[in-house]
Specification:
Layout: H1 3-24, H2 34-57, H3 61-73, H4 91-98, E1 103-106, H5 108-111, E2 115-120, E3 125-130, E4 133-137
Antiparallel strand pairs: 1-2, 2-3, 3-4
Helix pairs in contact: 1-2
């Protein structure tokens, strides 16, 4: 368990203790009881800790931007951008747009002579070639 998680659990535990004490405590009506004041302070501390914990758990903006860029371009390796591949492109054009595939499978048994599937794992897509032309993109 990480130190941040331990701090978060301790904050929750202290808040639960003060909440239970506030429920059990009896005092005069009308004026805020001492236990309620403690519960209010405990709630503020609990909220501050959890907001901090959640803020620390979020990736920095730079990392988020890199993740989004990798999703669009197909990863940091520079290959696998299937969005830019269109039907009818030649294999050379696919190499320029999407880069080298992670794997190429023979698909002649299913779709006929010259059929291949170019698989781009990071982009989670595949380009189905028939001969030297793109037939479709998954």
């Amino acid at each position: 368990m990480t130190p941040i998680a331990i701090i978060a659990w301790v904050a929750l535990a202290q808040w639960l203790v003060f909440a239970l004490l506030s429920l059990v405590a009896r005092g005069e009506e009308g004026e805020m009881r001492r236990s309620e004041k403690h519960l209010l302070g405990s709630t503020v501390a609990f909220a501050a800790v959890w907001i901090t914990v959640l803020a620390l758990g979020l990736p920095p903006k730079e990392a988020k931007a890199e993740t989004e860029k990798a999703a669009v371009t197909g990863g940091s390796s520079g290959g696998g951008n299937c969005i830019s591949v269109e039907r009818g492109m030649s294999a050379a054009d696919v190499d320029k747009k999407a880069g080298k595939p992670d794997e190429t499978r023979n698909d002649e048994e299913t779709r006929g002579p010259g059929a291949k599937i170019r698989i781009y794992r990071e982009a989670r897509c595949s380009v189905h070639m028939l001969g030297d032309k793109v037939e479709f993109v998954d």
